[in-house]
């Protein structure tokens, strides 16, 4: 089954809890706290794998959960950090934020990775909180929950040549003739329901990868037929091969329809090299029409996908164009965009429905890692907020004792210093 679009949910592993422990050994009085830190949670990583050609695995594993970090223990034993969870996807996978649709990664090279969800930080043990003012801290941090994100994964096949044509133009027949691929072939429209990738061997240890795209009809860019589902796969190809049936009523008109649909979908197709091939020349009535229509085409070949007539010359021409594009790509200098550094405040406070809401990564992390059942841990959280200036900011905004403060879904009562 070919799957080229899925929705996945990634939940990274949470950090391990810190340990609250005190050294208790014979002949060691006043041993003090010795609780170790928890290990960091494992990331969830998307890795491109050229051996995959479909997002089928992601479809049946739509929620991937990372492994949690190991909890800390006494005697200053720190928990082990978890290994990342690797999710293999085909080369050509585009990762988009599910909510906004913004593209966040484009995995085109084998082995290329993208950290989809970052693991939570491990909690600190009570040995970390020893200070001159607190010689015996009786609390430890909880592990930070792992990041939870939803993405849309879209596959855009990577191929040297993309075969574009109307239904029943003979795309699958040509693909089967020039490669070892065995696409479904039938004498009815839309026989090919999914794109097919094939490797075409050439003399001199050369090869081409060809993508057979399902038939495109007029209005495909607007959602008609099947071709609109797979137009994005043609974006990755280096060269386009327009395959047109010589038996069509107006082959030149068919060419214009195909070009128009691609232009409506994306302007990028205008820059791609292309070749036209008029197929089914093995039929006598079609062969006679070639002389009539070839004057209305440029770079046109008369072929027969069934018998192989004219196919060798066509493949050689495609190779020449692909080789030229490859060399141009190698010569391109990729200029990385300058990084724009912007100031991000440590927290943001706003009032809504009588409640004060506080947002910010550091503030949210501190709340999530606090054990609210431990009074000393809560006091430590208050000290953290005091050093961050949150209490002073609330006072300036008009907060009074008893007001509700909301941070990450946790409600607290405002008690000024």
CATH homology-level superfamily of the largest domain: P-loop containing nucleotide triphosphate hydrolases
Point out poorly predicted stretches: 188-192, 220-227
Which CATH architecture of the largest domain is right? 3-Layer(aba) Sandwich
**Averaging pLDDT over every residue, what do you get?**
83
Largest sheet at a glance? Answer: 6 strands, mixed
Question: SSE order, as H and E?
Answer: EEHEEEEEEEHEEHEHEHEHEEHHHEE
CATH domain class of the largest domain: Alpha Beta
What share of the residues does DSSP label as strand, in percent? 15-25%
CATH T-level topology of the largest domain? Rossmann fold
**What structural class results from the helix and strand content?**
alpha/beta
Number of separate strands: 18
| Total domain modules | 3
> What is the radius of gyration computed over CA atoms, rounded to a whole number of angstroms?
31 Å
Description:
- The chain has three domains: 5-155, GTP1/OBG domain (Spo0b-associated Gtp-binding Protein, Chain: A), CATH 2.70.210; 161-331, P-loop containing nucleotide triphosphate hydrolases (Rossmann fold, 3-Layer(aba) Sandwich); 348-413, GTP-binding protein OBG, C-terminal domain (GMP Synthetase, Chain A, domain 3).
- It has helices at 56-59, 171-178, 231-234, 251-265, 284-293, 311-331, 361-368, 375-388, 390-396; strands at residues 5-11, 44-49, 63-65, 85-90, 93-97, 103-107, 113-117, 148-155, 161-164, 196-202, 206-212, 239-245, 274-279, 300-302, 348-352, 355-359, 404-407, 410-413.
- The longest helix is centred in the last third of the chain and has 21 residues, at 311-331.
- It is built from nine helices and 18 strands.
- The strands form four sheets. The chain has a six-stranded mixed β-sheet, sandwiched between helices.
- Residues 188-192 and 220-227 have low confidence and may be disordered.
- The chain is an alpha/beta fold.
